[in-house]
């Protein structure tokens, strides 16, 4: 019965998003103003300044101070379960507003824009990683019922269509309804998310997985997800997110 209600909620949410696209003009995903070209010129300039360029951490992709610095402080202090990852933008204005609207105000259409930007920016990098599967970081079933959709799953599905790589939104399961990471300190975040993921019973291990999520902060969530995949037999785990915090 729960699965049926989850399915109904997902269909209803998609219908609402489709109706919104018909009734209202396309809006800029960063300021909410009507814009036929998607992102408006002012916001395009703003987000282009947030594109992460070299030098950056060799593992999580966060900006570092000099080319001689191979890893950021977080990656130097913690042994990561994932191999490497990249993010589109720094999580600075106007990106946080956009991601918030995407996640909490049913702006599902933003997923198409993010996926297009990810494909353009990282298509070659992803091809070098050669992932067999795209796996979104899952929400706990309680949070999924409340929100109606998993933003990471939308991203993975859009990326799958653009990159020609299969996506499996059922591969990972969130076993605990953890406290929101943004409310916790560094050490508490790590404890909060440890052991929070497992693979589904139907998951068949592949060699390489690309994890997909909206925001990378300290990396604890990505670590926990990657650890579960590795325990199931996956050899290489990479990640891709919309934005990344500055640490």
Automatic annotation (TrEMBL):
* InterPro entries according to UniProt: ComF/GntX_DNA_util-trans (IPR051910), DZR_2 (IPR044005), PRTase-like (IPR029057), PRTase_dom (IPR000836)
- Top-level taxonomic group: Bacteria
Phosphoribosyltransferase domain location is 153-240
Give the record's family classification: Belongs to the ComF/GntX family.
- The protein, known as: ComF family protein
Q: Where is the Double zinc ribbon domain?
A: 20-76
